[in-house]
Every structure is written in structure tokens, then in C-alpha cells.
Amino acid sequence: MEMEQLDDRSVLAAARAAIVAERRAGCRLLEAAAAWADLHPSESILTPAQRLQEYGEKAVLFGGEGTQDVAETAAAALGAEIGMNPDRARNLMADALDARDRMPEVWQLVDRGQVWRQTVHRVASKTRHLTKQQVADISRHVASSLPRLTPGQRLDNLVDAEIMRVDRERLEQAAVEAIHDRYVCKGRPDPEGMTDLFIHTTVADAEASMAAINELAAILRARQDQLPPGVPVRGARTTDGGPSGRDGTECMGEWRAVAAQLLQTNPGLAFRIQLEAKQPDLFDELQDDHRLAALIKHLDLSRLQPATTLHVHISETALDRPSGPADPQAAVGRVEGIGPMFLEVVQRWLGEACTVRLQPVINTGDIPPVDRYEFPPAMREAMLSQSPASRFPWSNSLSRRDDLDHTVPYLPPARGGPPGQTGMHNGGPLTRREHRYKTFGQIAVRQPQPDTHLWKTEYGRVLVVNPSGTFDLGAGEFARAVWIAGDCLDDQHSVVEHLVRERLALSA
What is the pLDDT of residues 366-384, one digit of tens each? Predict the structure, then answer.
């Protein structure tokens, strides 16, 4: 039957069957690549004398330590048959050999067709430089999570953290040596007289520099009609014509360039502009314009320091005991926007050219619900600290700019809504598109626990989303039982849900 003749359920069934087949086909391709390597080992290479040529074919190690040598032409021969160039075919064989010979738990997923080939490639390529023992250790820790994660930032964070755990000593030494790789260089000018200025530096210094540039750029743009001579405005526009930001602010690209140039070429003028913007009453307090000593005494230079917020997620073990060689897992935290990072590196960031203002520790179990639609800032922080990832099935979003959505739709008190609808028990982050689909699409959601969401499609598929990823329970009896069991929201939520459904039925 042609696809156009199918109903919606049949089309969805066909799409899901295609996805399952695609995933299994990727696993089958990995198995075939490993088998192809077995058929072309280094022992199969003819010697130069046998080939009557000056140079003989070489034995090459495609994969990491512990995988077999392969005849160098094997990849090109395979690629020619399956529509891949030699480099892609070589990467395919390397991934297959790494998974089979170095990651037994991951290879079991391949054998069962339960993991995406792109996921195997991501894990294999990131760990190829490690020893066989280190990779086997990582395999034991990550294999159970791989079927629940799609290739993206969450998978990268998981693998990167495991690499840091097993290869801590080398990475710490590399981090120490990397400080000597800082540089500034200028690119080639283009025909329009423009060029690039590159600064290669630490993440901490880059964050501080961007904070300073953004802050000065905002001041320059706001005071563009009152700027003193010497500011390299060069006709900078209020907006550069690009897309607006998610928060509705206009693009600041040109003004950032103006601010960066001013900070580098005339820091005194930049200081004056910042001073006038941040302490406008400073000169009014000084009666004698020549009292330079009094002026300096009144300067609060700390107010000129750009502010930036660093969100670091640390495991409980890292707080309970000091990290060290005996406890390498506790030495790694996750820095939002950056990924896994050694805590010693974070400590160095906070200890150099930085004024630290500690925020109160967030106890996610001590955030009371509120009687309003908006999520208060403290509640948002607690929610993102508890689980910063989007709560939508298979989502990879880890952005703090995601929407916070009420699991049970908010009902204003004037329309019968009960108190305490906005809280940790009834909300979670979603991207804007996910939020709109949840609002307007045919999908239901329940939140039996603050960090656990149950989703049910209109065709009965049930998916569980928690901080460890997405679990697809299918659409059978077990899935329906879990969905029913998940309906353990408190009474006020049930009342809201009932009222919303009742009003929707009346409006229909």
C-alpha cells in the first residue's frame, strides 16, 4: 500500500519501523566493517617480493590500542563497494574495531541493534587515544545510558566526564601545560579592509573578557549620542540587521567590536565612560575639581569589574570529602556552557584576578510553591540545578534560556485555580519548540516526582524522562500501567487538570 493511502497511525508505525530498521542497519554495518577487517588482517599483505614492486602494502592500526592491524587498502576496497570515500570507510572500520575489541558492553548493544552508529562513532573517536583498559572501564559505565541518549551535548558531556575520570593525571598535566599556549594573532585582511583578531586563552579569561566587552558595549550603545571624541564608533548601527536574541534584545555585534577596540587601544577613555555610567554622582560629591587624591579615594574600582556567573554542578561525594587520586570521580564537575571540568581547574579560575561572590546553597526540597503564574528566580535556579536538561523526550537541550513550563496547565484563581500551582512539583524546562508542541500538540504529560516526567503520545507510547535520559516504554500493557501509576500528583493538581479538561470540553 502506498504511503499516501495510510492513516495517521499507520504512517507513524511505518516511520517508527523505519527508524528501528535504520538503527539496526547502522549496527549491522558496524558488524560488517569489523568482519571486513577480520578478512583483511596484516597477515594477508603480500610482501614486496611477491608483488614484484618496490614498495609493499603496509599494515595499519585503524582503531585504538588492542585492536588488530589491518591491510592499508582494506578501507578503500570497502568504501568503493558501499559508497564511502576511503577516509569515511577507514573511520567506520576503526569505530567497529574499537567497539568490538575495546568496549564489550557497547558491542553487545550493537549486536542487539540498540544503539545508533553515530553514537558508537562519537564514543569511539573520543576514546581512541586511551588504553584498552581505560576504554573498557568507560564502556562499563556508559553502555546502559547510550540507548537513551541521541548524539549531542548530553552524550558528549557523559563521555567527556568518563574520560576525565580514567585519564585524570594526563589531562591535569595537559591543563597545566595548556596555559603556555596562549597567543594573540591577526588574520589576513579581506578586500573590504576587514580582518580577524584571534585571542587564544583560558576559558576563564575568555569569559571575563566577553563580560567586559558586553558590559562596555551596552554602555556605548545606550549613550551613543553623548560619547566623547576618541571612541571608534565608525558608524556602528543600533542593530546589525541580524536576528534578534531569544530574550528580544537586538544584536550587539558592531558595538562589541567598538568596545573591544576601545578597551585595547584607549583603556583610559573606556574607564572614564564606565565610571560616568556607573558612578554618575561621583564628581558632584567633590567640591574641588583639583583634589585628585580625594577623587581616587572615592573611586570604587570593584564596581567597574565585569560580572559573570559560573554555574558549577558538583556531586555530593565531591562535597563530602576532598578529591584526590583515591577518589578521581569526585574531582570532576560540570560547568554549564563548557562541560565536564576538573574542580582544581575551576578553583584556579576563581582564585586568579577574580572577586568571588558566593550564592546561597540551593536546597531543591525547600522551595515552596507560589500562587502566581511566573516561576520566581530562586525556583528557576533550583529547578535547573536539580536537572538542567530539557524534560522533553530525547531532547539534548542544556540551555538556561529554555522556557519553564507548568506540567499541569496553570489556571488563574479567578477561574477556579487552586493555590500553589507554580512549584518544583509542577514544572520543568522545555525549549520553545518543545513547549509549543506540548501546549498545542497531541501529547500528555504527568510529573509523579519533581525530577521525573511521564509523556504519552496520542497513540499510546509512554516515555519516561529523568536526569539520566529518556526511557521508551513502548505502547503495551506495561507502559499503560506505568502511565496510570504515574498519576500520583497531589489533589490540587488533579483538581486543576479536571477543571482544564472540563473547560476544554465545554469550549469544544
Answer: 788 998 889 998 888 888 8
Task: Verify that 155 and 22 share a domain, yes or no.
Answer: yes
Between 144-153, 369-378, 498-507, the lowest mean confidence (pLDDT) is in 498-507
CB 234 within 8 A of CB 267: no
Calpha distance 405→308 (Å, rounded): 26
Q: How does pLDDT run across 390-442, given as a tens digit for each residue?
A: 898 888 888 888 889 999 999 888 888 888 899 998 999 998 888 888 887 77
Question: How is residue 123 annotated by DSSP?
Answer: H
20 and 154 assigned to the same domain: yes
Say which amino acid occupies 110.
V
Domain boundary among 139, 166, 193: 166
Q: What is the mean pLDDT of the chain?
A: 80
- Cell numbers that stand for 339 in this block: 562541560
Q: Is the pLDDT of residue 336 over 60?
A: yes
Name the residue with cell 580625594: 294
Q: What pLDDT does 302 receive?
A: 55
76 domain-assigned: yes
User: Over the stretch 36-45, which tens digit does the pLDDT of each residue have?
Assistant: 999 988 766 5
Whether residue 161 sits in one domain with residue 206:
no
Same domain, 91 and 160: yes
Number of domains the chain is built from? 3
Buried b (16+ CB within 10 A) or exposed e, 447-464: beebbbbbbbeeeebbbb
Q: Are residues 251 and 136 in the same domain?
A: no
111 with 60, same domain?
yes
- The pTM for the full model equals 0.68
The three grid cell numbers given for residue 17, joined into one nine-digit string: 519501523
State the cell numbers at 56. Answer: 609493499
Strand locations in 284-392, DSSP E? 312-313, 332-335, 339-342
Which is it for the CA torsion 243, 245, 246, 248, positive or negative?
Answer: negative
Cβ–Cβ < 8 Å for 309, 384: no
Q: Is residue 189 part of a domain?
A: no
Q: How far apart are CA 256 and CA 84, in angstroms?
A: 44
Domain ends where: 254, 283, 312?
A: 283
- Within 277-326, strands assigned E span 312-313
Residue burial 250-264, b: 16+ Cβ < 10 Å; e: rest: bbbebbbbbbbbbbe
Q: What one-character DSSP code corresponds to residue 370?
A: B
Q: Which domain holds residue 246?
A: 202-283
Inter-residue contact 329 to 165 (CB < 8 Å)? yes
User: Is residue 270 a contact partner of residue 228, using CB atoms and an 8 Å limit?
Assistant: no
